[in-house]
Amino acid sequence: MTQNLMQRRKKRARKSKDIVDTDTGAAPTKRTRKKKDAVQEDDHVEKKPKRTVKPKKVAEESDGQPSSTLAKEIRENLSKFPHCLLLTRVGNFYESYFEQAVEISKILNIKLTTRRWGKGPMVQIAFRCVGFLSYTSTNTSKFMVQQHKRFVAMCEEFPKYTSLGERETIISLLSAYPTEGNLDPTTLGLTWIDVSTGEFYSKRTSYDSLRDDIARIGPREIVLDKSIEQSTHPVLEAIAEEDTVVSFIAPSYSADNVTAVESESDEESSAESALQGEASPTPIANVTDEITTAQDTSPSTPFVYTTQETSAIGLLTTYLQANLLEHMPHLLLPNREDSGGRMQIDSHTIKALEIRESMREGGVRGSLMSSVKRTITTSGTRLLARWLCSPSTSIQEINARQSLVAFLHSRPHFRTDLLDLLAKAEDAGRIVQKFLLGKGDPNDMLALTATVNIWNNIQRRITLEREMESLEQRSFDATEWASLDTLMNRMVNLEELAQRISLAVENPAPSQLDESQGSSSEATNEESDDYSQDTGPLRAEWRYGRVKFGIKIKPEFSPTLLELNNILKDLWQQKARMEERLQLKYDAPSLTLRSSPGQGMHVHLAKSKRDQRQLNADPAFVSISETGTTRSYFYQDWSQLGQQIFTTSIAVLAAEKEAFETLRTEVNLHAPSLRRNARVLDELDVTLAFAQLATDLNLVRPSIQEDTTYNVINGRHPTVELGLLTSGRVFTPNTVALTPSSHFHVITGPNMAGKSTLLRQTALIAILAQSGSFVPADACSMGIVDKLFSRVGAKDDLFHDRSTFMVEMLETAEILRRATPRSLVIMDEVGRGTTVKDGLALAFATIHHLVSVNRCRTLFATHFHELSDMLGYKDSSMPAGQGIFNTVAFHCTTVNEMDGGTFSYSYRLRPGVNRDSHGLKVAQLAGMPILAVAVAQDVLTALKSKPAEELDANELASLGQALS
Ligand SMILES: Nc1ncnc2c1ncn2[C@@H]1O[C@H](COP(=O)(O)OP(=O)(O)OP(=O)(O)O)[C@@H](O)[C@H]1O
């Protein structure tokens, strides 16, 4: 299937050329460039000849050389790097031309051909050329550099618009495909992938939700259909605010293309857990117009990708194929993310609530993530971010997560042991992806094995805990264990794979190797190789080559390898015997058999004056060089034996490489199971982290139900509480009780008295609760929140031509359009960005709409105490529900005035309305000059009898005059 796709996808994005990473084939990144520079210094690989490919135009130059663009660039590069062998990437090949082709064909033992440029006899130029497949380039170039001591320059081509190679870690790609024709015009297909881990998702979405999806996913790059590039398509509007690279491509795909996305197995489908609750990914089925998962083997409910999703998958796959070339990973069809099962948090809210990063500091510090993160693996941290940005709306799933948190919370020692084990695990998801991308070395292989062993140890530790609890007969409760069992039962036993790898791969331990002759470390390696006592450069070179190739496979891995190693061992022994024999025969103790690039296989005398007498008399030894003390000879017997050692060494290297490729294939075959286990461990990491968090921050288990209540007793803001603690202050907890009969609370109070904090903590507690975490409160019970909206903090967005007030209104409008009775809304100071009259009018209209149309749970903080009057508030003794809307209640914070003009904030919420903002106190605290504060005080006093809105222009002018 893949081949079909590849054939169909030959039409690629426009290409440009530049030097490339010889290891990865990816376009250079800042880091890879650096790395490459280092390699180039070490390995004589030159850098940066450049060429750009334009249509071939051939003409003969006066010197009889072809003058096509490619030919010119090759000659330019050759003259720029005269000391290098130049390899030029052309499609799937690296090619070498002219005289160098002859040399390379000899070195690599590949066929030399004759190529012609130009059409017609008049312009045809014949020249020598060799080429080899690009995927062999890493080893081939290393061979030329290391074995033949040649400098190599590589000229690479890659698509002009890709930024895939611009970073080591590619976070997410997202492709949104617009609807067409008679398809439902309100829906979109959305797919996204983390190329570094292979996590691939798809969902149906709408233009309204697209911005929220993007905010949650946080892609580095967005891929769109080229056909909408010049249009005013709503997708473009939705992504306009995003600070991401947007690529438009003309996809060479149809729905059928998706059939070529390679399925590894359906195993992964069950990997999605009761804890995670995401729908299963799809094994490839027959794709016609739509992709279906309806296969017998799938353990979970089949689902069907929509046509738009199918198109999005095709678009994204095309893009990856065009950019990753031969490093294109094997992809499973994506997991379906069903928005029905996730709390929708709009894009402003993700930013405003500082879930992933803080607004003030820009980084993670001060964010919810930073306060609650206790995960110890990077993949666990990624999962935590996903859970926090899209909490669940499934009570079953939330309960499963909470039960596991409770289970782990009550077993601190067990938790510590599991954490200790987890800390040693590698990011298996990323390693597997590396292998699927055709990368990965024996160290990765060993890391994977170690990780599989750690997984096994974790399972053993769990079994032990269960046995200990049963033995102690300490309230052993099988239902309590059910949450952990459900999670761990999803793991696949991969012990066999781990064993096979550890039996095959030896740790190359490069630090133990020394290229220099006769170093002290030689002995160690001789022992480990178990043959020959040779300390000559030929051997050092060969072993150096092994390490540089990153391969050391145990001989027992395959009969071929064993046989070759035995032959090699025998040859080394022959060499040792020959050396010993010659030393004795010619009475030359300093005689050694050596090889060097300049002299080939030669006999070396370290003390020539003493040892050369008898040797010189034997015509079998031909002197080839001498220095003050040393002398070298050609000796045919050694030359032949050395050559045999050399070719056998190369054969062993090739066999080890082949063996490694076999292992790589095995790892790739197990990729779904490896990923599945990795995901289980990620979930364990996050739940362990939640359990630890519950202990650290004294959190309680919330109770979640299917209603529209929100009852949090003495709730706290997790981040503000931590911030206060560092300065020795204590957070004042607050109770919020939203019920269907009192679902809208108006909060008034002085500046700086904790209104925004209360609003934010209300939202954060809902997020934590539905993520499966315990929450910062004395008690919490709440009905599922389907959508969370916030309108807090205002800042302008001049780049997108939006004033502060415009941003405020856009956000408010969106809430009024989208909130449902199951939603939770927090609104802070709506209407403050315009005149008092307009602001008041808009604030009232907003409340009116939220109460009577949306009917959602809302906290509405305001300094417009007049709103309370408009809403029918009388005084704090007024029973709830007695205003003009019977579901609106009033709460406030206040300041405690003390003797001597000092005051303190009471952050404690109480019923009622506070009409005093105490703004001047805050101004004073902020360091406003005393004179300015005094003038403000005079204005306030003057306005006490009659508010400013009621004064006409003349009255205001005379007031100003009086105060000046
Ligand atoms: N419950 C609390 N306990 C202790 N300190 C608090 C509490 N709530 C808020 N604070 C402190 O008060 C500061 C100001 O709080 P916040 O921004 O919520 O006030 P506000 O009423 O929204 O102010 P403004 O009306 O000026 O926007 C916080 O940064 C925090 O340091």
Automatic annotation (TrEMBL):
Residues 37-46 have a biased composition (Basic and acidic residues). Pfam families: MutS_I, MutS_II, MutS_III, MutS_V. Keywords: ATP-binding, DNA damage, DNA repair, DNA-binding, Nucleotide-binding. This is DNA mismatch repair proteins mutS family domain-containing protein. One of its GO terms (cellular component) is mitochondrion. Gene3D superfamilies: 1.10.1420.10, DNA repair protein MutS, domain I, MutS, connector domain, P-loop containing nucleotide triphosphate hydrolases. Residues 509-523 have a biased composition (Polar residues). Belongs to the DNA mismatch repair MutS family. It comes from Gymnopus androsaceus JB14. Residues 47-56 have a biased composition (Basic residues). Residues 823-839 form the DNA mismatch repair proteins mutS family domain. GO terms for biological process: mismatch repair; mitochondrial DNA repair. GO terms for molecular function: ATP binding; ATP-dependent DNA damage sensor activity; mismatched DNA binding. The lineage of its organism: Eukaryota, Fungi, Dikarya, Basidiomycota, Agaricomycotina. Residues 1-69, 258-283, 507-536 are annotated as: Disordered. InterPro entries: DNA_mismatch_repair_MutS-lik_N, DNA_mismatch_repair_MutS/MSH, DNA_mismatch_repair_MutS_C, DNA_mismatch_repair_MutS_core, DNA_mismatch_repair_MutS_N, DNA_mismatch_repair_MutS_sf, DNA_mmatch_repair_MutS_con_dom, MutS.
